[in-house]
Model the fold of this input.
Amino acid sequence: MTKCPACRVGFARGDFPALAEHLVHRAEESDSDHVRWLNQNLTRTKSEAKSLVPSLEAFFDLGSASLTSWVKARFIAKFFGKAPHPFVVALQHPSRATLLGYVVEHQHFLRQWVRSCAFIMARTDRPEVVQYELDNLTTEYGGFGPDRPSHYELLLRMGESLGVDRAKVLSTPALPATRRAIEEWNEIATREHWVAVLTAMHSLELIANRNLVDEGASVHYFDPAILSGNEIPPAAQSFLREGYEADVGHSDEALALASRFAGELEVVEEVQSVFLRSMDLFDDYLIARLERAADFEA
Amino acid sequence: MKHNYEGCAICNSTWGNVWAEVEGEKLFFCCEICVAQYRGLIERVRQATGWSQLDSIEISGDRRGRTCEVAAGTAHARFLFSFNSEGKILRFQPAASLAPR
Done:
């Protein structure tokens, strides 16, 4: 099955003419998600559906590349291109406000993360995928005992080190963009093929994958120099270092599993579209971190 | 008011079909989010400049950050701006004007 990368409605596999008709139709209705996708990925110029088909086919074509390489190239283009995502720019040398915006919105994200990964485990029949998710969930949320706290715990400690206690963080509702993204990630987790969910969620860990610079990213997620010295508090260094060290393995291992099972189960096209939608949600969610940061700027 | 874009007043896309009246002028937009963005932008420009009327607006850039060069009579000003996903202004700050004074 192929799917719309803006709303995930399905079409027969390889039916790019139907997908093009759908995109044009929804754009004519001025639907912002569809217009956005066309503007950012194919063209800003209104076109007939049939003239979009070759561009769509080229966009989704893996060529001789693996699904992993295709996902990484799309991710780099969106978040680490010539003009990196504004949150990535802000995180290079983050202010207290930027880090607190991160803390307050990200605790909501991580709580959904657990749910999404749990759905993957519940719906896959592949033991290696279950093992991968167990390890990921322990690192991200459960922790390995007092000596190796979870990423979630490190996030809350970062907030405390910046003067905001965890009760305040945990009682602050998510901003609308975060809430919308979380709701759709939950829907993706419950409705899409588990390989698509695996790809949609774990591709997002590419954001902290320090090896992306070797593959064309213009910058790292943050300037690694902030992990030493006293530009940010030790608790913030611990939180960022954890992602910096874990997310190369997390994202690469998940994408290797995704590539393998998407091919085996013949779900490559739907995996691509669900991943594209997840990237757009993530883009909005990262902007919400900056929006929250503005609350702490005064 | 004079605009540099022939498509959507914010992003120049020709997709979509939204017409909205802003400052007494009926303008084309690709979606409702761009309408909200444009309205918010004009309001912030007016607040920042104190001008009662704008004669022209020239927008450049993309979703990662845009600039606008605005003019009223012989006065010019330039601003950097970006939006959140609902179309509200996230960042708005003056920039050096490129126009001759």
